[in-house]
Design a protein that fits this description.
5 strands, binds adenosine-5'-diphosphate, 5-stranded parallel sheet, alpha/beta
């Protein structure tokens, strides 16, 4: 079985993430979305909230599973028996960091391959940080996130 992990913070999930999820789920047998619990970052949404958002948003995709993880990505990938890591690529600015991470992971575990999926053009400049910044100042994030995330942002930020 061709199993892949799509890891990220998903704080919160954007239309850019959903685009990668939809496309990745069509090319692998099983897609595991790994939601990172990073102790050195203070996320806007808790790990349970981020996992629940993704579960709700992907309920119509039948070959997907949403799991939280902490620690090394490559350890998580091995623990779920996956052989592929999926990452989304936006502008060139993503490239150096992503390339470095892919090569580092290959040194750690050579049999795990990183697969990059390029973003759709309308999501080129979309990131969770941009969404949070706009939402905090009361801007309209409708074109950037699924409707449920827009509501979750409203509740969380009390706007
Ligand atoms: P991380 O902190 O690991 O970068 P993110 O949640 O920001 O976590 O991103 C997870 C993955 O989704 C990364 O591979 C990132 O490049 C990708 N991604 C984020 N936003 C977009 C987008 N607009 N289009 C395509 N890929 C994206």
């Amino acid at each position: 079985m061709n199993k892949a992990v799509y890891p990220g913070s998903f704080d919160p999930t954007t239309n850019g993430h959903m685009d990668i999820i939809f496309r990745a789920s069509r090319i692998v047998d099983k897609l595991i979305v790994g939601v990172l619990q990073n102790p050195s970052k203070t996320p806007l949404f808790s790990i349970d909230e981020r996992v629940n958002h993704l579960k709700m948003l992907t309920q119509n995709i039948n070959n997907i599973e949403i799991i939280s993880f902490s620690g090394l990505l490559i350890d998580f990938v091995q623990s779920v028996n996956a052989k592929v890591v999926i990452r989304g690529l936006r502008a060139v600015t993503d490239f150096e960091y992503e390339f470095q991470m892919a090569l580092t992971n290959r040194i750690l575990v050579p049999e795990v391959e990183t697969l990059f999926i390029s973003t759709s053009t309308q999501f080129l400049f979309l990131s969770s940080s941009v969404v949070k910044e706009i939402a905090m100042f009361g801007g309209n994030v409708e074109a950037m996130v699924p409707a449920q995330i827009k509501e979750a942002l409203k509740d969380k930020l009390d706007i």
